[in-house]
Amino acid sequence: MNENLPPCPACSGAYTYEMGALLVCPECGHEWSPASGAPAGESSDEGGVIKDAVGNVLADGDTVTVVKSLKVKGHPTGIKAGTKVRNIRLVDAVDGHDIDCKVDGFGAMKLKSSVVKKV
């Protein structure tokens, strides 16, 4: 346990750790920005601004790159890191999935903004 990191805002777990620019709770899987306490990809502003993994503001029609490999149910292989996704559409978050898109070879799916980077 790192004494300098705050506890998880979702479950109050004390074992938070840093992963890039985010803090992560291993107990519940919650990811958030250390400055705001807001979940990853969400802003504490009322405007509903959605940001990518490095803090860039996303908009409908943007092209993004997946920053880490993702498992996909029903497919023997997952989405590899570096895969480009074009023409994203931002939607209201459902279980943290706030991007609606089509990934080549996989079809339509929802992604979390915390696993993509704006190109």
TrEMBL record:
Q: Membrane-spanning regions, if any?
A: none
User: Which Gene3D superfamilies does the record cross-reference, listed alphabetically?
Assistant: 2.20.25.10, SH3 Domains (2.30.30.40)
Q: What is any Pfam family matched here?
A: Zn_Ribbon_YjdM
Q: Which domain of life is it from?
A: Bacteria
Supply the InterPro entries for this chain.
Answer: YjdM (IPR004624), YjdM_C (IPR013988), YjdM_N (IPR013987)
Q: Where is the Protein YjdM N-terminal domain?
A: 5-33
- Write down the SUPFAM superfamilies for this protein, in alphabetical order: Prokaryotic SH3-related domain (SSF82057), Zinc beta-ribbon (SSF57783)
Limits of the Protein YjdM C-terminal domain? 50-119
NCBIfam families xref list:
phnA
Q: Which family does it belong to?
A: Belongs to the YjdM family.
* Record protein name field: Zinc ribbon domain-containing protein YjdM
